[in-house]
Amino acid sequence: MQGSNDKSTLKEQYAGLVGNEQIIEKIDAFKANKSRENLLFLLEVIHNRMNDDGQFLIPVIPSQAALDLFTSEEVKAGDTVKSDANLHFRLNTLETADGKKWLVAFTSYKEYEKGEASSIITQDIRSYINIFNKDCGYEGIIINTWSTKFFFIKDFIKIMLNMDKPQNHISFVVGDITKLEVEAIVNAANSTLLGGGGVDGAIHKAAGPKLLLECMTLHGCKTGEAKITKGYNLKAKHIIHTVGPRYHGKTEDAMLLYACYINSLDLAKKNNIHSIAFPAISTGDYGYPAREAAVVALKAVIGWLNSNEEYGMEIVMCCYNEEMYNIFMGVSRGE
Ligand code: ADP
Questions:
Q1: Are residues 122 and 222 in the same domain?
Q2: 152 and 190 fall within a common domain
């Protein structure tokens, strides 16, 4: 726990807010001329500060434990107390005349000092703004309440959070799927889920023996379905195991292959995964002709992206060699 009665020390403590002057500057510019351009400049500066781990000063209502501390000799109200396990703070809110509730934030100690004394903590801009990801009942944030105030309304906050959201995207690479830096890689497994050759063997080898132990608890997987495990020694945090169909030249093959992609993507979404790499499922041992498989694969993943427009999924189609890459690229160009 940390407290101080010395205002200058307190100010020094907030020297970390440097960089927020730019936000003040842009708020002033917006107040002088409320153009769309000035608003966008301001949102961009806040967004950049958010990505630089910038901080706001947040007025808070301390818990009884914190108040007890304030009335002690050690710390007085208005000082800063960093929260620890026993000290809880509630964010201070403001209610405007129309009955709407707002959160409050200051961009500098000077801005905070213009108003009534309260307790404050520093909070990084990103996590503060992220409160609006949940339905919190606030209309938005009022930045610098006392003078150059700016109403950062919910709609702006949504724009800001969307800026950060991964976009739906599909790309093609040649390479070894076990080396890719994505949140999840897909394994073209067999129905036992207990390892095999091809990409399955490569994934088990790269992930390490713990993967097999986890797979043993899953009791297999039906063709067209998908199950998830940890990624262990892989860069990818998760592995999604799906079982492609053996090629028999029947329409059912295409339906099952299609299902592999859709079920893998649905499972990824369920686990809040936003980047995923697929091998060319069934095109090895299971004998699916590469071009036919690529048509089904792309129909499935593009269809999924279209029906999940808002989600933001980065899909990498990982082709083991140039030949497969050219086939996928050709199909994607409609050749
Ligand atoms: P299936 O039994 O579903 O046919 P395979 O593993 O035999 O699965 O082959 C699926 C595809 O994965 C093939 O195109 C194969 O060339 C490719 N492949 C094999 N090893 C890797 C790897 N390490 N990374 C990416 N693709 C791979």
A1: no
A2: no
